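Hey,

Quick one before I head out. I ran the complex with DQA overnight. Inputs first:
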Amino acid sequence: MRILVLNGPNLNRLGKRQPEVYGTTTLADVTADLEGLAAELGVSVEVRQTNHEGEMLDWVHAAADDGDPVVLNPAAWTHTSVALRDACAELRAGLVEVHLSNVHARESFRAHSYITPVATGVIAGLGVEGYRLALRFLAGRSVPGAA
Ligand code: DQA
């Protein structure tokens, strides 16, 4: 068992992309930070990003088959992708949807998520801390005796 942290389109641009909205932390920084936290928590984590929807679907299918919990920032696919929602509906080991920004305080099209109805829970607006909280939550569910 490992916890997957899957990131959708444009999140490879983190740190450079609209820093006033998404902050200056890069995805490499997030990855290093989550790997450190996972080691502390005694779980294994794998952080990935793709700009290709089919690749993301393949990752979610594999997570469903392997019983891996998933932290997902679906990025723009949050608001567009029935295909990603259908794939996520198969996950049984926990799915936390994470958004760096508070999607409810932005353009109205960002308020609707195709993913939320099939997620265990959602964290939005807490910046990169959202990933840490999601990892802690899923690690706590998956490691017997962990807090
Ligand atoms: C995002 C919010 C989405 O609306 C946007 O398309 C993103 C990032 C976030 O992390 O705040 O790419 O998921």
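The chain has a mean pLDDT of 95.

Talk tomorrow,
K.
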